[in-house]
Amino acid sequence: MIIGSWTKIILLLTSVVAVLQVIHLVLLNHLDTLRLQKAKVLRTVKESAIPHEVEVKNIISVLDDALKNKHLLDSTGSYRIANVNFETKQYVYSAPIPDIALVTQCSQHHIYKLIRLSKRWQGPISVAIYMDEEAVAEVFHKVALLMTCFPAFRENVTISFVSPLPAKNRPSAVPILDAKDLCQEENYDGGVASTNYASSEGYPNNLLRNVARRASNTEFVLVIDVDMLPSENLRQDFLLFATQRGLFKKNNHLEKIVFVVPAFESKENVVPPLNKGQLLSLVETGEVRPFYSQLCSKCQAPTNYDAWLNEPAGAEMATMFDMIWRDPWEPFYISSNNVPLYDERFKQYGFNRISQVCELHVAGYTFSILNNAFLVHIGFKTTSSFHEDKEKDQERNRMIFRQFKAELKLKYIESSRRCY
């Protein structure tokens, strides 16, 4: 009898132990599942916060191959030009699309400014980036990160690279990957910005403008500097304006007229205005002023800022009045992409933009001032914002400009217009 009772107790304890082992195994399995889920979440967070190294490396490889193996030389044989065309973009250069592209150029030090520019424009942008030979790897890394981190940038921005011919064979660009979160816009502060036109090779601004224009496949272009921002919806408003005026119809883009976009400049810490109402308020407080007010007010005077500022903002983009060019006006304007290109002999500072505007005048173009559209240069233009050799650059380019004007007389022999 006693033996039977002990047998039952032993069987009961054995069953309890077995049940406990099963529970232990279930808990261990559940704990492993939780660990795997946690690791997956952490991995997902990490991958979303840091650009995928494989994608960045692949983009750098494409950029490097374009510069090394698919580049062209400029007309002087001094610079390599590489246009990058990713598979996500399909260009038909023989049939420009009925759109307007923002065309700009920058040095290796100002690539980060393309972020805010692409966000504001929300459409096709063509940029030519100038880089010294020793900065190639750094530039490719920055561009690859922009393409990885900002989908709108990769979708809308066409990139061309311009660099001096290397003195010797250059090794392939090495990715400069960092473990920190480089997809945050504030990390693209570019470090200490270089002085305007500071380049050991001579900054070829007109070559860059031409390279960027040629890489665009839209009927209209707006050529600006990279440190400018257009008014909000400028592209969309112009598309409506051009459609209503029939500017996209066959041969209408051959009309000799360009549309001037008034340019302003703002203090560094001012939030760029979105519309004319905001701009007018900032002009009243002195935080925004007409472009080049201090450096060369007469260079923008024919825009007639007083008339433009007094004109009420309309519901749609419209022209206010037409102007014939007069020296030394340097307007920014929207034009057909078949207007004369920039003369690439001009480098550094002085006469690079005015020479092209001067040719438009001699060729018979009219300048029509747009209302409800404007550009804002970030930062006031002052004499201290230029490099110390500015005057030397200007004098050298002045001599080229004299020759350029003489050549225009022969190029447009039937024109009665002159650049003076």
From TrEMBL:
<comment type="pathway">
    <text>Protein modification; protein glycosylation.</text>
</comment>
<keyword id="KW-1133">Transmembrane helix</keyword>
<keyword id="KW-0812">Transmembrane</keyword>
<comment type="similarity">
    <text>Belongs to the glycosyltransferase 49 family.</text>
</comment>
<dbReference type="GO" id="GO:0015020">
    <property type="term" value="F:glucuronosyltransferase activity"/>
</dbReference>
<keyword id="KW-0464">Manganese</keyword>
<keyword id="KW-0325">Glycoprotein</keyword>
<dbReference type="InterPro" id="IPR043189">
    <property type="entry name" value="B4GAT1"/>
</dbReference>
<dbReference type="Pfam" id="PF13896">
    <property type="entry name" value="Glyco_transf_49"/>
</dbReference>
<keyword id="KW-0472">Membrane</keyword>
<keyword id="KW-0328">Glycosyltransferase</keyword>
<keyword id="KW-0808">Transferase</keyword>
<dbReference type="GO" id="GO:0046872">
    <property type="term" value="F:metal ion binding"/>
</dbReference>
<protein>
    <recommendedName>
        <fullName>Beta-1,4-glucuronyltransferase 1</fullName>
    </recommendedName>
</protein>
<keyword id="KW-0735">Signal-anchor</keyword>
<dbReference type="GO" id="GO:0000139">
    <property type="term" value="C:Golgi membrane"/>
</dbReference>
<keyword id="KW-0479">Metal-binding</keyword>
<dbReference type="GO" id="GO:0035269">
    <property type="term" value="P:protein O-linked glycosylation via mannose"/>
</dbReference>
<keyword id="KW-0333">Golgi apparatus</keyword>
